[in-house]
Amino acid sequence: MDRLNRATHSDPVVYDAFVQVVNLLAPPTSLMKPAIFWRVMCAKPSNAAAAPGVMAQPAEIHAVG
């Protein structure tokens, strides 16, 4: 599931397939189609995913009020 989540951030084809499943327009097994599965397995990890436990920091925090 982690790889699928990471792939949705960088691959629009995987993202579209995932959205179809979440919206019940496609069965969950559609994510196991070879074309989608391959894209998920080959997705490059993001910087946040490469360093577990380290949260990304916002570039700038604006004070409210």
Structural description of this entry:
α1 crosses α3. This protein starts with a helix and ends in a 15-residue tail after the last helix. It has a domain of 42 residues. It is mainly alpha-helical and 65 residues long. The radius of gyration is 15 Å and the shape is globular. Helices cover 51% and strands 0% of the residues.
Mean pLDDT: 80
The gross shape turns out to be: globular
Q: How far is it from the N-terminal to the C-terminal residue, by CA? A: 40 Å
How many individual helices?
4
**Which residues sit in consecutive blocks of at least 5 with pLDDT less than 50?**
none
User: Which series of helices and strands comes N to C?
Assistant: HHHH
Taking Cα atoms only, what radius of gyration do you get, to the nearest Å? 15 Å
Strands, helices and their partners?
Blueprint: H1 2-10, H2 12-22, H3 34-42, H4 47-50
Helix pairs in contact: 1-2, 1-3
Question: What can be said about this structure in brief?
Answer:
The protein has 65 residues and is mostly helical. It has a domain of 42 residues.
